[in-house]
Design goal:
The chain is α+β, with helices and mostly antiparallel strands. The chain is built from 14 helices and 13 strands. The strands form three sheets. Strands 6-13-10-7-9-8 form a six-stranded mixed beta sheet, with helices on one face. The termini are far apart.
Length: 431
């Protein structure tokens, strides 16, 4: 029986043979011959159907041996042997990870799992960096990544967009979540002395969130992983986290109910006439927004939405840059000095959120929203972001594929109708 190391060496040998066949064809500027294609198929079958299952079994056995050995080792001795080596310094400030050590741990996992780095594999075992690949997972389907990387991606997702900062987020125990909602309240009666009181009943509706899958694949060059693993892993976490955040913002704001937006109907498409403040005829540009327009928007939001959570503004970056920012100064909001020092922008005492997903067309479109988003918009989370990695999806290109999958739904449930809901919008004129 081959050892784990011998199996891994054999896999590398066969992969090198396949690369040699491809390189030969490329050098001669021709397609693969039928014999070469048969050879490639045979080599690939040998890797996937023979060696990979053996590797998974042997790795599982090896891990179990290590687990038993560690369990039998006195705690003091284990701790003494696990002195953390110096973590390499990244060449720049990290954007996704809280510490270089977390980024380093994630990088070690990549190097151990997909670059056959023996030192990295040893360090992963020493520091308890979980490698799901060693539990017999098929690498073609993907290995689940360590906690450090998945947590960094989720953190970037949560703070990278406005949707999860504004909306109420609830967990879903199944694919469908039904939440009762009061649609009409009680009525106060004025009965005469000794007269019967006229009863009234609350009426109830239902907010229904139906989880749908969102997924993304990012490809990472193995050369980059070899050369600058901390920076690459940090960039990867930022890219995937921001991609999910941007998509959530687009669904919340621009969703038109189609499959292109996960069947989400967002603020622009769902806003009712009762919650819309129209700018005067001829005021078709964001630069035409006035303080009077913004005061009207604040006055349109019903009083009941000022109590449970603080209302907020949501504007486009274009609208902010064109004149919204100057209106903030004029209204006694943030000064340039405040913003330069990192203060969050405010208008009339309410925070301002800026999103690139807001409409950019200035004619007959929503320039700004204002309201209690927590009361009017809901994100139902069925599955948090699950990150997996495959070395085989793009093996011929020496590329590692990173896949992110999540399931959720967004419901802008209290914005439509003939009367204003929890969120109201300012709309430019059509002409």
């Amino acid at each position: 029986m081959l050892t784990l190391e011998e199996i891994q060496e054999r896999i590398v040998e066969l992969q090198e043979q396949m690369q040699a066949v491809i390189a030969n064809a490329e050098e001669l500027a021709r397609e693969l011959t039928s014999d070469e294609e048969e050879e490639m198929d045979a080599l690939l079958d040998s890797i996937n159907n023979d060696l990979r299952p053996q590797e998974a079994r042997m790795q599982k056995i090896e891990n179990e041996k290590q687990r038993i050995a560690l369990a039998q080792t006195p705690v003091v001795a284990v701790q003494a042997s696990r002195a953390m080596p110096a973590v390499p310094k990244s060449h720049r400030k990290l954007r996704a990870f809280d510490s270089e050590q977390d980024a380093y741990r994630a990088g070690l996992w990549f190097k151990a799992s997909f670059l056959n780095d023996k030192d990295a594999n040893r360090l992963c075992n020493d520091y308890g960096i979980l490698n799901t690949a060693t539990e017999g997972t098929n690498s073609a389907g993907g290995y689940l990544v360590p906690t450090e990387l998945s947590d960094a991606i989720i953190a970037i997702r949560n703070r990278g967009g406005v949707a999860r900062q504004l909306c109420k987020v609830v967990g879903m125990s199944s694919d469908v979540l039904n939440i009762p909602k009061v649609t009409a309240g009680l009525t106060v009666d004025y009965p005469a002395e000794a007269a019967a009181i006229t009863a009234s009943d609350q009426t109830w509706g239902t907010i229904t969130a139906t989880a749908a899958k969102r997924a993304i694949i990012s490809k990472v060059s193995n050369e980059l992983l070899h050369d600058s693993v901390i920076s690459v892993i940090d960039d990867l976490a930022v890219a995937i986290g921001n991609a999910f955040a941007t998509r959530e913002d687009a669904e919340l704001i621009l969703g038109d109910g189609s499959s292109s937006f996960g069947s989400v109907t967002g603020l622009v498409s769902g806003m009712g006439a009762g919650g819309t403040v129209d700018m005067a005829s001829g005021n078709t540009a964001f630069s035409d927004i006035t303080l009077a327009n913004l005061n009207s928007l604040v006055g349109t939001l019903p009083d009941k939405y000022y109590g449970s959570a603080e209302p907020a503004w949501l504007v486009s970056r274009i609208a902010w840059a064109s004149n919204f920012q100057s209106l903030v100064y004029a209204a006694g909001g943030n000064t340039l000095g405040d913003l330069a020092s990192g203060a969050a922008p405010q208008l009339f005492g309410f925070p301002v959120y800026i999103s690139d997903s807001m409409p950019v067309s200035a004619v007959s479109t929503y320039a700004a929203f204002f309201g209690n988003f927590d009361a009017g918009c809901l994100i139902g989370d069925r599955m948090s972001v699950e990150i997996s990695v495959s070395e085989e999806a793009y093996w011929a290109n020496d590329i590692t594929a990173v896949k992110g999958v999540t399931r959720y739904d967004i419901q802008a449930h209290d914005i439509a109708g003939s009367s204003a809901g929890a969120v109201v919008g300012l709309k430019t004129a059509a002409s």
